[in-house]
Amino acid sequence: MVVVETKLEALKKLSQTDDIEDALFKMGMELEGTENGTAKVEITAERIDMLTPEGLARAIRAYTGKHSEPERPKSSGFSIHVERVSRPFIACCVVRGVSWTQDAIKETMNAHDKLNRNYGRQRKKAAIGIYDISGIKFPLKYCEEDKRKIRFLPLGGTGESTGEEILLNNPKGVEYASLVPGHRAPVIKDVAGKVISMPPIVNAKEFEVTEKTRDVFMEVTGTHRWTVETLLSIISSSLEERGGRVETMEVVYPEGRAITPLTEWKRETITADYVNGIFGTSLSAQEIANLLERMLYKASVSNGKINVLIPPYRSDILHKLDIADDVGRAYGFHNLVPETPKLPCTGSVLDMRKLSRKASEIMIGFGFQEIMTFVLTNKKDQFEKMNIPAEECVEILNAKEGGISIARKRVLPELLKALSFNLHRPFPQRFFEIGDVVSVEKSDTGASDRKCIAAVVSDSRAGYESISVPLCGLLGALGIEFKLEKTEHPSFIAGRVASIAVNGKRVGIVGEINPQVLENCGIDNPCAAFEAELEKL
User: Fold this and answer.
1) pTM metric for this prediction
2) What is the homologous superfamily of the domain 74-260 according to CATH?
């Protein structure tokens, strides 16, 4: 959960709602309390459109039936020309007629700071800039220049400085200097050559937003285009709640042009049966469409289907289930009536769970210790250390931690990693794990998971027999007919490895671990291991 702080009276005014606490509760959020007139609201982390006080007020106003969506942005006639830059993407717009107060400026800057830190990954992925437009001469240019030649008076500075000096002395420059390595840094300049900003570090003092400001220029720069453009949609739409009128700008890249902020609403189609099947309700298609209007969508009914338009700032909508969740929030989860499932059966343990439990008990009886490792891992542990060529796998987009970048395809590499962390423990060591592995697949989610069992024996005398005996005992105790067939595998010693076949299909592998793999993992003792897919046994 994320906490948004805003003046309570300002929130009431923007949302046109007096009972803020009740509205938030029904929406699935919470008013943590107020202190010196400032309200602290806990919102769900995926609703980044509500991280600004204006976005939060808009959501409350829509929920209470008091919101009307403004007209789609018109063109400002302005453009920005982009050269080859290390932070290659930028999205811009103009917002006119904004009513600013000192509190409004402070809340806006605080909201932008939260978005920069969280959604923008400490400004690395995306960073926001906002400026008084009155002194800016269009068109603009987004380029890179030598840090020693960049000169302007930065926010928080006392005099004109070079880019190099800003990175050494300015508080923001010191904090984010690592984002602009090398001798050059990105800059935004107007047609007169004035430096407006050195993103993602600091803006020029000359264009600072004050209470006298009415028209602003806004930009978001970053390394991920979708994030940059989505973030601009969120912050620009928030200023509409303060009376602003958003105007688009043309971004001219070397390879093409773009209009920002995004103005097209995404389209999705759902049915009443889909929603009612989730919540156990009997809502009509029109009733569902009406509920969606309270969650900032536009919805209409045609041929029994509900056509849903999703606003650009609702970046959290990734699946039909997200839309159905909003229907539930608008309907009120407290209004759902619990019912006994109308099924001609009673609940029971899944067959796979029964098999897993039985296999676990057998392995423990053979003297193995059960462990649980992480499903998220990295390519080096899964492939490189195992002498396996890299394979297609489920990857985490823009993974912040290099050691956690993919979903594992095998359990055995993680058992070897666990062994490498326990070299100071007495030997022999016998570990096993029953866990999920994930593979890429053509489906709604793009992936599927399977249950596997893997075991490893580590000892100075560990050999093929050390692991084949417990494997045969396990399969025999489970009543499974199998064969061990000669095979080759780069993770195992040639001539000391076999495939596990059940009903003529290969379901796993068993053998002595290749010494090169052991060296890669930092393990001194010989090891023998097996891994098999439980679902194929």
Assistant:
1) 0.66
2) Phenylalanyl-trna Synthetase, Chain B, domain 3 (3.50.40.10)
